[in-house]
Amino acid sequence: MNSHEMSLISHCRIVELPRIRHNNGSLTFVQNTPEALFDVKRVFYLYDIPGDSERGGHSHHLAQEIIVALSGCFDVTLHDGHESRTFTLNRPYKGLYIPAGIWRGLTNFSSGSVCLVLTSEKFCEADYVRDFDRFLELTANKAYK
Questions:
Q1: What are phi and psi of 50, to 5 degrees?
Q2: This model's pTM is above 0.90
Q3: HEC states along the chain?
Q4: Which of 103, 121, 127 is nearest to 55 (CA)?
Q5: Rounded to an integer, what distance in angstroms lies between the CA atom of residue 137 and that of residue 50?
Q6: What's the pLDDT score for residue 51?
Q7: Could you give the CA distance from residue 60 to residue 66 in angstroms, rounded to a whole number?
Q8: So what's the pLDDT on residue 65?
Q9: Using alpha carbons only, what angle is made at residue 113 by residues 108 and 115, rounded to the nearest 5 degrees?
Q10: pLDDT of the chain along its 145 residues, tens only?
Q11: HEC string for 75-96
């Protein structure tokens, strides 16, 4: 995996997940459909995160993600190699879509936060770019639109 797809901050966006409301609670679901942004191949979640912790700190060559705050809130700062933007996630029916090639960092976790991540790829260490300087080198070689 040596190609780093060129994605821009403008490709990242909040997506509304299906929500069914009842008097006794709400239900949100994600399923693979032709309308979905990608087929989900891996699901994981982060919890018991100290408020001053930083998570993420990487980009992917291939994997796309949707990040959801199932409980509590936290910030996701994205960088495309040229500009950055921070999103605050705090609703379990709204997710942040992140295409491949975007650096992400998660910070400012409230007490009891649970972060759900849906990904388009199974885990593969070679898909990760974990060094920010290397990420900048990869994105510098791509045309900025």
A1: -60, 145
A2: yes
A3: CCCCCCCCHHHCEEEECCEEEECCEEEECCCCCCCCCCCCCEEEEECCCCCCCCEEEEEECCCCEEEEEEECCEEEEEECCCCEEEEEECCCCEEEEECCCCEEEEECCCCCCEEEEEECCCCCHHHEECCHHHHHHHHHCCCCC
A4: 103
A5: 32
A6: 85
A7: 13
A8: 97
A9: 95
A10: 445 557 899 999 999 999 999 999 999 999 998 888 999 999 999 999 998 999 999 999 999 999 999 999 999 999 999 999 999 999 999 999 999 999 999 999 999 999 999 999 999 999 999 999 999 999 987 654 4
A11: EEEEECCCCEEEEEECCCCEEE
Block residue for tokens 């045309």: 143
In which residue are the tokens 């009891």 written?
Answer: 112
Q: Could you tell me the two tokens for 9?
A: 């901050």
Residue found under tokens 């992917």: 60
